[in-house]
């Protein structure tokens, strides 16, 4: 199967590899509390984005669009812009019960958004080879969340020092910062939010 992959597909795999690297680095931070691991995890997000941007351009340049490439791209995006940011947030200190609910909802919204995109891409392209707009926020926009976590790391506001503190909410703890992930998830699955595609 690998022999049938196009250059764009290999760039997509670079996206997925960057996302997995970010997850491993986040786990290493939890194990060691060395900030270098967290910074690596955060830095791999923009690298994944570069691969994500390049794979589409290369596919269009080489006229190598395929259903396989589209599915591969979505699966890589789930790893890099869904699971990886959630893992980084957990490593940074969003570990309360309600935080986990928010992070799981964020990933579920990302998966749903990508599935909807794949199903509706043909109708949204209106017969051309390119979709005219995104319905809901594209999943790579979640990089702003990891940028916020990067600022927290740089200012020493990790773990118990997270912005806005923590609340006892029923049986679980909630860090209000986790609500940013829930809000991003809601933007991704919005049906009314239309963002023109460049």
Describe the structure.
The chain is mainly alpha-helical and 198 residues long. The protein has helices at 7-32, 35-61, 67-92, 97-124, 143-154, 178-189; strands at 133-135, 167-169, 172-174, 194-196. The mean pLDDT is 89. The protein starts with 6 loop residues before the first helix and ends with a strand. It is globular. The longest helix is centred in the middle third of the chain and has 28 residues, at 97-124. The strands form two sheets. A two-stranded antiparallel ribbon has the order 1-4. Strands 2-3 form a two-stranded antiparallel ribbon. Strand 2 and strand 3 (172-174) form a beta hairpin. The chain is built from six helices and four strands; from the N terminus they run H-H-H-H-E-H-E-E-H-E.
Rg for CA atoms: 18 Å
Mean residue pLDDT: 89
What characteristic shape results from the CA principal axes?
globular
Distance between the termini: 32 Å
Oligomer: single chain
- Given as residue ranges, the uncertain stretches (5+ residues, pLDDT < 50) are none
Instruction: Tell me the number of strands.
Output: 4
- What level of helicity do the residues show? 55-70%
Helix-strand string? HHHHEHEEHE
Query: Numbering strands along the chain, what is their spatial order in the largest sheet?
Result: 1-4
Strand content: 5-15%
Main sheet properties = 2 strands, antiparallel
Please report the number of helical segments. Answer: 6
Give the class from helix and strand content and strand pairing. mainly alpha
């Amino acid at each position: 199967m690998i022999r049938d992959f196009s250059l764009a597909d290999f760039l997509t795999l670079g996206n997925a590899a960057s996302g997995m690297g970010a997850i491993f680095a986040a786990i290493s931070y939890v194990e060691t509390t060395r900030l270098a691991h967290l910074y690596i995890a955060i830095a791999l997000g923009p690298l994944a984005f570069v691969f994500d941007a390049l794979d589409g351009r290369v596919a269009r340049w080489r006229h190598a669009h395929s259903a396989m490439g589209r599915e591969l791209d979505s699966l890589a995006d789930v790893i890099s812009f869904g699971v990886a940011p959630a893992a980084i947030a957990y490593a940074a200190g969003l570990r309360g019960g309600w935080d986990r609910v928010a992070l799981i909802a964020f990933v579920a919204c990302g998966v749903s958004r990508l599935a909807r995109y794949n199903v509706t891409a043909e109708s949204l392209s209106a017969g051309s080879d390119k979709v005219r707009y995104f319905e809901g926020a594209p999943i790579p926009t979640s990089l702003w969340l990891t940028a916020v976590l990067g600022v927290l790391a740089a200012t020493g506001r990790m773990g118990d020092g997270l912005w806005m503190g923590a609340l006892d909410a029923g049986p679980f703890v909630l860090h209000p910062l986790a609500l940013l992930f829930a809000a991003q998830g809601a933007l991704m699955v919005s049906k009314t939010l239309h963002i023109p595609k460049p």
